[in-house]
Design brief:
By secondary structure, this protein is of the alpha+beta class. About 30% of the residues lie in helices and about 20% in strands. The chain has helices spanning about 35-40, 45-55, 75-90, 95-100, and strands at about 5-10, 15-25, 30, 35, 60-70. It is elongated. It comes from Anaerolinea thermolimosa.
Length: about 130
Amino acid sequence: MSVQYFEGVGRRKEATARVRLMRGSGRFIVNEKAAEQYFTRLGDIEAILAPLEASGHDRSQFDITVIVRGGGVTGQTDAVKLGMARALVKMNNELIPVMRKGGFLTRDARVKERKKPGLKRARKAPTYTKR
């Protein structure tokens, strides 16, 4: 018997998160750890679960499993949040206006700018000296 789940992929900077939502008892696993162990910063769990609360669902209704790779803590948090919102929309299309209004379906396209030749970093030029 296969378990039915709804999957959403979220990305931010270098981070990619695959979020799976299935009916269950409220387990929240990130990279085979409890979410509270993986995201230890204050407010990260609340930010990730914001799309779930905006949709009117309770965390205890779902089992959530996440596989997140790459990036830093903030990038991973935002990637999981976007993946969560996309999974909820797959589950129920009528949630699209709610997710749009909360800004949960917008992918943050800002990424690190590439280094240019002749410069020290993306925009920092070597110090100009007249003599």
